[in-house]
């Protein structure tokens, strides 16, 4: 058996020291990091954005098929994705955990490996947190802090009539990854001898377990000198997010089904489960792509990017929130987008 170190053998302070001893600060804005009552950051005249997310075992993740390293990575990604969605640059995170005695030090180390991998990739400093025990289940809370030039943050409420609705990457894959892993878990519980067959589904499973935040899209937009009029990240499915954007901008919209980006792997996976790929994009979740609107005059600047799809436009509020299907029919967008397609 693998070596197992009981967390209780270190004590709380020993554990915190163990988990944070290798931190190498990457941001000059980090004045005081882990080790005092609070961290100190200096954003040198920039504005600060703050966002926080809670991840609870059994609600947001299932350790039966989520490797701890991936969970650590994803815990950071889902938070910094919200920072990017404000058009800001993430610089710092705090990470709080509650662990049951089911966890060994080695298991926790794996989780932190993922955390530090994400921090390194996105150049974010871990500057604090809290550590507690939990009666049952693993609880993770991450707060991310970012900086943005004064007035350059992008909210959800700035879209104007006629603006183009854009989204990055492709949608619906993570949802199918989840469906696959849930199915494999069920098969395994019924018959542990059956080996999971995940080979064909690498893409969709990867999208669920190892999401990335779209820093590259912000870079692309800023290089093109395009400032979106509104923006948010897509964590709960396109339909629910576009409704938020319409509501906050007090507008309607028209989306075109044929323009919604869905990867070929996602399409094939959807067909295996007899699901409509568009429904997965509209109502799935955890894509962590960016949904944003741009002024029509900026279209030239982004139209050559393969990572950005123009999927519709903003309309007067009286026109409602509509999607035009590949067959030419028009439906209302609902929070569970697939209802319209039944
Ligand atoms: P306090 O008693 O003020 O809550 P702690 O003993 O909990 O302080 O934490 C000591 C230092 O370690 C603080 O800088 C805190 O932010 C940091 N810290 C505690 N838990 C974690 C963790 N799980 N990951 C990273 N830093 C942590
Ligand atoms: Mg504490």
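^ structure tokens above, recovered residues below v
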């Amino acid at each position: 058996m693998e070596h197992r170190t009981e967390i209780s053998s270190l004590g709380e302070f020993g554990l915190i020291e163990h988990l944070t001893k290798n931190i190498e600060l990457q941001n000059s804005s980090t004045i005081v990091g882990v080790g005092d009552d609070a961290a100190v950051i200096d954003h040198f005249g920039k504005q600060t954005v703050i966002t926080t997310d809670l991840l609870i075992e059994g609600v947001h993740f299932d350790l039966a098929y989520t490797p701890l390293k991936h969970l650590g990575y994803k815990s950071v990604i889902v938070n910094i994705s919200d920072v990017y969605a404000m058009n800001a640059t993430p610089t710092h995170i705090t990470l709080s955990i509650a662990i049951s005695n089911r966890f060994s030090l080695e298991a926790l180390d794996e989780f932190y490996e993922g955390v530090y991998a994400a921090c390194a990739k996105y150049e974010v400093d871990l500057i604090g947190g809290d550590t507690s025990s939990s009666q049952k289940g693993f609880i993770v809370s991450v707060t991310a802090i970012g900086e943005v030039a004064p007035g350059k943050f992008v909210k959800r409420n700035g879209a104007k009539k006629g603006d183009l609705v854009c989204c990055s990457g492709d949608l619906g894959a993570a949802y199918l990854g989840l469906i696959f892993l849930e199915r494999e878990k069920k098969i395994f519980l019924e018959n542990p001898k059956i080996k999971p067959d995940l080979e064909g589904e690498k893409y969709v499973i990867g999208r669920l377990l190892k999401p990335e935040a779209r820093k590259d899209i912000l870079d692309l937009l800023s290089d093109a000198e395009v400032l979106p009029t509104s923006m948010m990240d897509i964590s709960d499915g396109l339909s629910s997010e576009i409704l938020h954007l319409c509501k906050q901008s007090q507008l309607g919209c028209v989306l075109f089904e044929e323009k919604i980006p869905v990867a070929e792997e996602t399409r094939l996976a959807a067909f295996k489960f007899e699901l409509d790929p568009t429904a997965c994009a509209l109502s799935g979740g955890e894509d962590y792509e960016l949904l944003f609107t741009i002024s029509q005059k900026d279209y030239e600047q982004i139209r050559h990017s393969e990572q950005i799809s123009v999927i519709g436009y903003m309309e007067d509020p009286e026109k409602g929130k509509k999607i035009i299907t590949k067959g030419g029919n028009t439906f209302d967008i609902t929070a569970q987008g697939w209802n319209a397609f039944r």
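The CA atoms of residues 69 and 124 lie 17 Å apart.
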